[in-house]
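batch_manifest entry 22 of 60
target: Small VCP interacting protein
source organism: Felis catus
requested by: lab member K.T.
priority: normal
notes from requester: please return tokens only, no post-processing; we will run our own comparison against the previous entry in this batch. if the run fails, retry once and flag.
--- input ---
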Amino acid sequence: MGMCFPCPGESAPPSPDLEEKRAKLAEAAERRQKEAASRGILDVRSVEEKRKKKEKIEKQIATSGPPPEGGLRKRINFLWTVS
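--- output ---
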């Protein structure tokens, strides 16, 4: 009474094989990552699109080289003094 051992006629339940256990753990980890990434975000797709667009712009800036000499501020000052 109160013992936690299997009855002599019963066998222990089979344990899942190692590959099946790893697959389930990987699936659960992916699900948790997706849930954590979208926590508090109503439209996950728009956030992903904005992130990709930002990365694309940053990549273009990095590959285009340094900005032209003078920059925008000097051009604006030049327009103010000419008119």
